[in-house]
Design goal:
- The protein has 82 residues and is of the alpha+beta class.
- The protein has a domain of 55 residues: Pemi-like Protein 1, Chain: D, CATH 2.10.260.
- 15% of the residues lie in helices and 22% in strands.
- Strands 1-2 form a two-stranded antiparallel sheet.
- The longest helix is centred in the N-terminal third of the chain and has 6 residues.
Length: 82
C-alpha cells in the first residue's frame, strides 16, 4: 500500500486501508505503539485487557504465594441456571 503523509490540523497523519488494519489485527479505537527502528516507523497493537489494563503487568503484581479460593456469592437472585 502506498499512501501520502497529510497535514491534519497541527499534526500529520496517514490513512491506512481497512484491509491493512485487519491483517495487523488493529481496529478503530484500538491503542497502538508507534516507534522508529532503523529509520522505519513501526505501528503495532498494544495488548490490553478490556482496553485499559495489561494482563502481564497485573499478573506480575500478584504475590508469589497467592492461592486461588472459591467464593460463595449466595443463592441465585434471578433466573440463573446452576
Amino acid at each position: 500500500m502506498v499512501t501520502t503523509v497529510q497535514k491534519w490540523g497541527n499534526s500529520q497523519g496517514l490513512r491506512v486501508a481497512k484491509s491493512v488494519l485487519a491483517e495487523a489485527r488493529i481496529g478503530v479505537g484500538d491503542q497502538v505503539r508507534v516507534s522508529v527502528q532503523d529509520g522505519r516507523i513501526i505501528v503495532e497493537p498494544v495488548s490490553r485487557v478490556r482496553g485499559s489494563h495489561d494482563l502481564r503487568a497485573l499478573v506480575a503484581r500478584m504475590p508469589k504465594d497467592y492461592q486461588v479460593e472459591e467464593t460463595d456469592w449466595g443463592p441465585p437472585v434471578g433466573r440463573e441456571a446452576w
